[in-house]
Specification:
mainly alpha, 10 helices, globular
Length: 190
């Protein structure tokens, strides 16, 4: 299958085939890669940045970086999904640091637009507060625990994929996940 014919059968081709097309410079293959991973990358960036605009910026920088460095990708180093999502995480961390810790906690216009009719305000405000509280608690976890939880829940990676990407034994990933979730559960119940 040539790199330019990738989009015709994109659901049927593997990530490795898509990356081969991307490495060859195919804009179509790059579009397929973006379509497959931009939502998951956004969810990870949103957790890190705590701001919709900055999360979108992180996703944009993620895919620009992937395109610019596409020839250096090696499939032997790991699967595509964890690699893309890790690039997204690091771009989000860079953006969050660049914008300072206080800026990550400011309300955005996007947040204000999520509140609809006056009758729904209490329910939506409560849901937003709960999400904000969970993200705040997640940010307080040790880096190792936060990383595996973020990759699993927001990146939708399996324990096996996380272990392979982080070069850790699966038991270590499961242990970090268990400890992090126990801590989150305890913090939420306070």
């Amino acid at each position: 299958m040539s790199a330019e014919n990738v989009t015709a059968d994109w659901p049927a081709i593997t990530d490795d085939q898509v990356m081969a097309g991307v490495k060859a410079g195919s804009a179509n293959a790059f579009g397929v890669l973006y379509d497959r991973y931009h939502e998951r990358a956004y969810r990870i960036a949103r957790v890190v940045c705590r701001d919709n605009g900055r999360a979108e910026e992180a996703v944009q920088e993620t895919f620009i970086s992937i395109w610019k460095t596409r020839t250096t990708y090696e499939s032997k180093a790991g699967k595509v999904a964890p690699w893309v999502l890790t690039v997204a995480r690091y771009r989000a961390i860079d953006i969050a640091r660049r914008n300072g810790r206080d800026a990550a906690h400011q309300t955005t216009d996007d947040t204000l637009h999520t509140i609809s009719a006056p009758g729904d305000v209490p329910e939506q405000a409560a849901a937003h507060a709960q999400t904000r509280d969970v993200l705040s608690l997640l940010a307080q976890l040790p880096d190792a625990q936060r990383e595996v939880i973020t990759l699993a829940f927001y990146g939708e990676l399996s324990h096996t994929e996380i272990a392979a990407h982080l070069d850790l034994p699966p038991g270590t990933v499961k242990g970090r996940m268990r400890l992090g979730l126990q801590r989150l559960r305890a913090d939420i119940q306070r």
